[in-house]
Design a protein that fits this description.
This is Lipase (Class 3). Keywords: Membrane, Transmembrane, Transmembrane helix. InterPro entries: AB_hydrolase_fold (IPR029058). There is one protein chain. The protein is mainly alpha-helical. It folds into 3 domains: 263 residues, Rossmann fold (3-Layer(aba) Sandwich); 293 residues, no CATH class; 166 residues, no CATH class. 57% of the residues lie in helices and 5% in strands. It is built from 27 helices and 7 strands. Helix 4 crosses helix 6.
Length: 794
């Protein structure tokens, strides 16, 4: 029999619409944390990519690629009565290539970037809001300096200065023999050894610049739909920020910050070369020309530091318009000038100084103390700004508005663990069997040892918190046990089944207690950090040596904490590397850490340019463009259906739509963290006012949730319209025991497989019924658009 061509199908579809048949409906599915395949989302092994690339794309069932070109009765498959289904697959934006596992090593930068978005809600035009953002950017800058300073500590101090300058250490390592003073070679002078070792931190800075620049070109280059916004209008400051056309387009700010942080890295290395060299040149007998060159370099370093701070402070994000301009002079000249200063420092350090010998340690202790004190002062100032903002607009915000400063403390703590862990392990390896810092051998700065000593106490506090929450889960489970059977009347009780359901619900409730872990851990980290800085500054000795005159029990405790902390700090770095690799090779491991990772990389890089890239700057424009172009081309109704993190992407995309398109779009969310996580931790962007605004702007919205879900929850709109959005809690498991429809025990689904619940199809159909019936586009435009769609699909 002859088969229809696409043109025949398009003509029949057009004829049907002329006869009164409405346009096709579409369901756009967006998956959540951990990713999935289009085959699983569409429940069909035969799928085709409609639009997109290998990184993120829209898929359909092979039978529905040209569904708009055919009358509804010609569709095949079990979903022929429902809307056409599309799956937007974005998991490769955060996973995919296993080399991206190295992004996990940038975890401190990602956490610092999160602090920018955790401010309490307020009019974004307020000066306090801008001040808060400024201090977050400065904290992020200190993290870059800390990481590069840690690399300098390993390369310049431990290897080039201490080990290569010691005949015992260098003699046992053949790869360091040419640097040993015993050989009297050209590289044996301390300045030349330092200049050669500067290649390592310089390469690290270059690698960070390269990764940021490459991801900037790929992720921050997706153009959003442009709509003019009058920021001077009185109501503009109260509009949700996610409505603004430039929110998901951060090319300019990321380029500026990348230039500043790259320059800061080069200047940190230059300071590590210049300061010890000028110290020697100022000693009696130093050369006058060398001394003058040293002062000139110090002046250039100070000027470069002022320029870096000025660039970071000058401006933040521009969200009210799609700002495509680039400050090309800044992004080129600033890192170029810093690299030139570094080159001059290398030449200056390589100047011949025959009488110079490396003894002791480089002045790294003072540098790390200065960084720690600066971070503490900036975080305290951030906390003051956050409290002022919280008092002006109190709400359901964790830690009384101090979530941002608390997360900034954790970012600095993670940075110290990374820098200190590498230094501790390198010192231990170079020093052989000796304990670093306990003798005349190889030793890292005293402050890093003090920080390591505090880690066992911090871990004990964390274990105590976990025990408290374990007891809490046990008590909640026992309280729930008598109520479980109320949801399954007529069923025969099974104690094991009942306890399993109650335990799942109790564990799911721990998500709401996360502030009671983050807050105490951040406070203890800040206090222990302050104590470590004080101890290192006052005693200038490692804790084990500083406690020699203390009673025996105190001395033994200090020695034990120092040794254990040194190993734990190094182990933390190794575990981070191991988990990084495993997270991108094992789906189970990825799901374990996927919540934090996908939340952290959802937000644009507003504070730290070396953070992992923001996948939403690609995903949100993708979804917005797809909804706008499909509704304009085909004139049908559309339900965007988001699970878990996909519901956050769906909401962000709906916010970006124009008024005409929103009138044809319904929002269906399930397992959604919109209020439970984002609304609490990011109240300025997903708080009650913002979610209420979304409810008023979208035509209709329904949210599905379960008590057993540890991530999703109800939306809880504040004006009493919550039942219009929130469906009642879904029953989980669907049945308690065995039934004719479920002869095997039904699983407890928790956060997954919401589409298996019969309520899902009913709610989706209800949303489509609430959308107004649409008229097809003009025949010429519709036919041409359909034919174009068919050709692009093929």
């Amino acid at each position: 029999m002859p088969t229809d061509t696409p043109a025949d199908g398009a003509q029949r579809a057009t004829a049907a619409r002329k006869g009164g048949a409405p346009p096709s409906d579409l369901e756009l599915l967006v998956h959540g944390v951990g990713g999935t395949t289009p085959e699983e989302m569409l429940r069909d092994p035969r799928t085709c990519r409609v639009t997109g690339d290998e990184t993120a794309a829209v898929y359909r069932r092979a039978d529905e690629v040209d569904a708009e070109q055919r009358p509804p009765e010609d569709r095949e498959g079990p979903d022929r009565e429902g809307p056409i289904r599309e799956a937007y697959v974005w998991c490769n934006l955060t996973s995919g290539n296993s080399s991206r596992a190295l992004w996990l090593l940038l975890l401190p930068f990602m956490v610092a970037n999160l602090a920018h978005w955790m401010r309490p809600p307020a009019d974004r035009r307020e000066r306090t809001v801008r001040t808060y953002g400024l201090f977050v950017r400065l904290v992020a800058l200190t993290l870059t300096v800390l990481l590069i300073a840690g690399a300098c500590e390993v390369a310049l101090d431990l290897i080039a200065w201490q080990c290569a300058g010691s005949a015992d250490c260098a003699g046992g390592k053949s790869w360091l023999g040419f640097l040993s003073p015993e050989n009297h070679g050209w590289w044996s002078q301390p300045g030349r050894r330092l200049a050669l070792a500067a290649v390592l931190p310089g390469a690290l800075t270059g690698l960070l610049w390269y990764l940021s620049n490459r991801t900037w070109s790929a992720y921050e280059s997706s153009p959003p739909l442009e709509r003019p916004v009058d920021e001077s209008a009185p109501e503009a400051g109260n509009r949700p920020a996610l409505c603004l056309p430039g929110f998901w387009y951060g090319r300019r700010i990321v380029a500026r910050l990348r230039a500043a942080h790259t320059a800061a890295g080069f200047l940190t290395i230059a300071a590590g070369l210049t300061l010890p060299t000028t110290t020697y040149d100022r000693e009696p007998g130093g050369g006058g020309l060398q001394d003058a060159a040293g002062w000139a370099l110090l002046t250039l370093l100070a000027a470069g530091a002022v320029a870096v701070v000025a660039v970071v402070c000058y401006r933040g994000r521009s969200e009210t318009k799609v700002d495509g301009e680039l400050d090309r002079i800044t992004i080129t000249a600033l890192p170029g000038a810093a690299l030139a200063v570094l080159a001059l420092s290398v030449l200056y350090a390589g100047w011949s100084r025959p009488g110079w010998a490396s003894t002791g340690k480089l002045p790294g202790n003072q540098a790390f103390c200065a960084i720690a004190i600066g971070e503490g002062a900036l975080i305290v100032t951030m906390a003051v700004c956050a409290l002022v903002l919280h008092r002006s607009a109190p709400g359901r915000t964790p830690l009384y508005g101090l979530a941002g400063p608390a997360v900034a403390v954790l970012a600095c703590g993670l940075g110290a663990v990374l820098a200190g862990g590498v230094a501790q392990r390198f010192a231990d390896w170079l020093d052989g069997g000796a304990t670093p810092g306990e003798g005349p051998g190889i030793a890292p700065p005293v402050l890093l040892t003090w920080l390591a000593t505090a880690i066992p106490a911090l871990l004990l506090a964390l274990v105590a918190l976990l025990l408290i929450f374990t007891v809490r889960v046990w008590r909640v489970r026992n309280r729930l046990l008598p109520t479980i059977m109320d949801g399954y009347p007529g069923e025969r009780p099974d104690p094991v089944r009942t306890r399993r359901i109650a335990r799942t619900i109790a564990r799911a409730g721990l998500t709401d207690s996360a502030p009671w872990i983050v807050g105490p851990v951040a406070l203890l980290t800040l206090l222990f950090g302050a104590a470590a800085v004080t101890g290192a500054w006052v005693t200038d000795q490692v804790p084990g040596r500083a406690a020699d005159d203390a009673p025996g029990a105190v001395d033994a405790a200090a020695q034990t904490a120092q040794a254990l902390g040194s190993w734990l700090m190094g182990l933390a770095f190794l575990m981070l590397v191991t988990w990084a690799r495993r997270a991108y090779r094992s789906p189970a491991a990825r799901r374990t850490i996927g919540i934090l990772w996908d939340v952290g990389t959802f937000w644009p890089r507003a504070a730290h340019p070396f953070a992992p890239p923001c996948y939403a700057e690609r995903a949100v424009p993708d979804l917005t463009w797809r909804m706008e172009t499909w509704t304009r081309r085909h004139g049908g109704r559309l339900v965007i259906s988001g699970h878990s993190q996909g519901s956050v992407l769906a909401a962000a995309a709906v916010w970006q739509l124009d008024h005409r398109t929103r009138g044809q779009v319904a929002l269906l969310t399930y397992g959604s963290p919109l209020e439970r996580l984002y609304g609490r931790w990011f109240p300025a962007y997903f708080g009650p006012t913002q979610l209420l605004s979304l409810h008023g702007e979208v035509r209709c919205w329904r949210n599905l949730w379960r008590f057993t879900d540890p991530i999703g929850g109800p939306i809880r709109l504040p004006d009493g319209s919550g039942p219009e959005v929130d469906c009642g809690a879904l029953k989980d498991p669907l049945v308690y025991g065995r039934t004719p429809e479920h002869p095997l025990p039904a699983p407890i689904l928790g956060h997954g497989d919401y589409q298996a619940d019969p309520v899902f199809d009913r709610e989706r159909a209800g949303l489509l019924a609430r959308l107004p019936e649409q008229t097809p586009p003009p025949p010429q435009e519709g036919a041409a658009g359909q034919m174009s769609s068919g050709r692009s699909s093929g």
